[in-house]
Amino acid sequence: MVNYRYLGNSGFKVSEITYGNWVTHASQVENEAAIATVHAALDAGITTFDTADTYANTGAEVVLGEALKGQRRESLEIFTKVYFPTGPMGPNDTGLSRKHIMDSVNGSLTRLGTDYIDLYQAHRFDYETPLEETFQAFADLVRQGKVLYIGVSEWTAEQLREGHALAKDLGIQLISNQPQYSMLWRAIEGKVVPASEELGISQIVWSPMAQGVLSGKYLPGQPLPAGSRATDEKSGADFIKRLLRDEVLTAVQKLKPIAQEAGLTMPQLAIAWVLQNPNVAAALVGASRPEQLADTVKASGVTLDADTLAAIDTALAGVVEDDPEATYETSPKARLV
Fold first, then answer.
1. Which of 55, 149, 181, 218 is the catalytic position?
2. Among the four residues 27, 62, 209, 325, which has the most C-beta atoms within 10 Å?
């Protein structure tokens, strides 16, 4: 079964492997298959589920709500996000203004079929809205009981500090950040993680398998596997392209004997690796088929020894992105509509 970790400086626990439905629900897979994967996640001991209103333009929340119908609500931890455009994408259908937050949270609650959201996350930093306006809206939602905790996604160290201070002044808790993090993408280690450790903020990391590249299924100089994420425009094919360079794929193949020596599959090694970071509370995983989760959850509770970690660093030398400045390029400087 899956282990649990505290989220930030709070008493709130989440499953350290969390189910995310970014490119799967209402997009990559049919609804019946998506619901089956959620049920497989529950059977495997995953109780924490992450989505966003923008995924499939609100469709992913609908599917997740349907999949969780009938479950004991108190035994689940449901996360969603607000920022990116939704609906007809009018001038107030995006960002972190009070109007968009209030409209969005009510829509998310309806689609998810719940009275409250455990963790409500600012999906990016909004340069066009005063941060005080955003956090006052978040504080009001907490006081109304619609939201229990506040998180953010892909914020810089400085943004985390400013948001944390505002949250504290308003008497609410900012307890998490959701950044990209994997063996190949370590940009948060330089500034974001140290600031988060100081503030009592955990990371909920997305793409721990680097969009599937760390599974080892993409081979240098070979055609892309049929049906893979790299061939599906609805599943983030553009996003994965930057990782499909031969030098990256060659380095990733060097991880196979390391995984075998550790008694792990390649996906298990990738997920176990991010969970070695004590500031990481959870690794987000998705699935297009229920059986994928049976393999994934075995990464929970795994400890990688120092020799294994050193071998990973040696194998990937030269292809890792670890520049802290990369964290400053994640939030759009202007809204997308």
1. 55
2. 209
